[in-house]
Amino acid sequence: MGASSAQALQTDVSVDYEAKAYSIRSGAWDTNYTSDCSDLKNPVAAGCHTAEARDNGFANLLRVTSNFKDEETGVSVHTRLELSGDRWQGDDLDYNTGASEAFNTDNRGSLVSLDLGYAQIPLPGHAILRVGRQEANWNNGLLVSDDRRDRILGIVPTGIGTILALYDRRGDQQGFFANDNGDMTALGIVTKLGGFKTGALWVHWFSNHSGASQGYALQGADIISPYITGDVADMFTLTAGFNWMGNNQIDEYAPGVPYSSPAVGLDGLVYSDSSWAEYIRVEKTLGDLDLGLQFVGTQDGGLISSGFDTYSSMINNSPESTANPTSVYRMGGKSGLKDYNENLVIAKAGYNLTPQFKLTGAVGNLAVDNGTDSDDSLVLDLQASYQVNKAVRVWATAGMIASNKVGTLTGNPLVDSTPIKGTSFDSNHVSSGSLNLSVKF
């Protein structure tokens, strides 16, 4: 009986490993204090020190995927563990990984965490039900990119396309307090129109708030996010999409301001007024040459995921669950701020010197307008990639964003946000470089 059960179980195991060495540099933050400052109001008396103009570091990421499928029923369980995912901080990471009495208390390693874990159940009509922690992507990364969601998802093939219906619990940190639940539902479709692949998604958050200033920030809000991609008369590939977001019943003028304050409603935060984000991308392959031209924009603080591919290693391109250490500027992160607009026009050219070795350069212009002032920044990027074999790839990046008197920096989870986040770079350009290794099998 044990043997027959084992034979009916199909297993699949894979490994993803990445290592990164990186550096970011700018004079924009070198007068700010680092995160260990105990008293920012009296930093000199507290002995605080200012940040250096450059930060460099190393990081690695190790994830192991294990999927199990019962061949008789078709039911499967999909799991992925993150065994390591940290910036290198020394021999002892000082995580509370167990009791103080242990084999190893001097060189403690990373915490192991569940990255993905869900059950997939086949239903009549080739429909699928998924329940558990899942990966979320939509609209080529414009709406969401490599996120993790506790989700119930139904996938239903029909004659007009594949219907998607889902529920996410985006927040629930406190029991017996519905304000923080973050209940989100969505209904979408993926289909074909002629030679184009297209999709559309409507997202809605339940309204759980009772007027209290605590709780989940989105209540009653809506998102509409369509996209289309395909070849135009065999000349080039066209990809376009947008996000519209609004209708949030909570309008926070500033963090900590009560919803009943007279200041509420003045600026559209958070997504109470209509906000927009969009992109249009034209790409063409000519032999060993890959060309691309892209426009990315936001109006009134429109939403763009941190992982959206802007052709720049320093602007977005930092997926929500797999951070990019050289990404220091986030387009689409102003949460519906009224009159705050961003535009990026950028072109890229990639050339395959050999089937394994590719060079890609990009140049563009980033324009930022806050309603009272505006400025433009030159954006430069260079990447080199070498596919060693089917499992191993190495690549390097170098990038620069010229100074901008309106925009502010955001940083990323692999660098200390304290001296960077919210910092103006009005008189300083920002540069970065990285060397990366990827192993997948």
UniProtKB/TrEMBL annotation:
This is Porin.
